[in-house]
Write a structure and sequence with these properties.
271 residues, alpha/beta, 7 strands, globular
């Protein structure tokens, strides 16, 4: 985990912890039955179980699920939490009775799932009549020139300070570097066939009544993952500053945000 925010507790709190806080803010109820789609190493599933919910986490990666199960088995709070179960499965192929969950969560997983409309419809079918969806998703196609220019300025400052470890150095030719950053954003998305923003947003709006929609900071994750500052205090302060700057620029509509949070309530008869 040396190249992820988990390498330092304060970076984990500033990234994964913020996702957890966002989910918690829009959970309407207690002791819910929750499905965590694309749960990865299961950190969110585990936190929700510790809050008293019963959780099933599914992921297509066997290695991820094995890691989640190890963490689950060694959890010091396992006697106090809700039920938790992890399964290896692609969501489109996963079989489970309809109308059995109070909440379905997609946390940065829907953009990976082919035919997102069908995935959202399946989530709708799995939810009880008054069920809810929380979708926190990456919209790669929103990185434009203005956004890439800010990434360039932030990354270039870290690079010049000797605090950025990436082997991909940015030149002082801003136009060339901005094009490079846009390509860096688009290349893996094209290769892995990520879903675009509207491909995810449209079925969510069709099948669910919107209770909340917001744009959230996320670009800072990539910046701080490659940031290395010898002083932990300085690294923590710098990471918080980058996140705060991105948040302020989103609010001022100066850059395009790339992470959205959609909270919806099931609309009966829409399947």
């Amino acid at each position: 985990m040396k190249d992820s925010p988990w390498r330092q507790p304060y970076l984990a709190r500033l990234t994964f912890g913020e996702i957890h806080n966002l989910v918690d803010e829009y959970i309407f109820g207690q002791s819910l039955r929750i499905l965590d789609v694309g749960c990865g190493r299961g950190w969110l599933s585990l936190e929700l179980a510790r809050e008293g919910h019963d959780v099933i986490g599914i992921d297509s990666s066997r290695d991820m699920i094995q890691s989640a199960k190890r963490t689950m088995d060694t959890d010091p709070y396992k006697d106090e939490r809700g039920d938790i179960e992890f399964q290896v499965s692609d969501f489109p192929r996963w079989v489970h009775p309809s109308e059995t969950f109070d909440l379905v969560i997609f946390s940065r997983s829907l953009h990976h799932i082919p035919q997102p409309g069908k995935a959202v419809r399946k989530a709708h079918d799995l939810l009880k009549t008054d069920g809810q969806i929380i979708c926190i998703e990456y919209a790669y196609d929103r990185v434009d020139k203005r956004t890439a220019t800010w990434i360039y300025q932030a990354r270039r400052s870290l690079q010049q300070s000797g605090w950025y470890k990436s082997g991909k150095k940015l030149s002082d030719k801003i136009d060339q570097s901005v094009r490079q950053l846009i390509e860096e954003s688009n290349a893996p998305a094209r290769k892995e066939h990520f879903n675009r923003f509207e491909e995810m947003r449209k079925p969510l709006n069709t099948l669910f009544r919107e209770a909340h929609f917001s744009w959230e900071p996320y670009i800072y994750w990539d910046l701080i993952m490659d940031m290395r500052i010898p002083s932990e205090d300085v690294e923590m302060a710098t990471a918080q500053s980058i996140m705060s700057m991105e948040t302020a620029l989103i609010e001022a509509e100066t850059i395009n945000p790339v992470l959205f949070c959609f909270v919806g309530l099931k609309q009966p008869g829409k399947s």
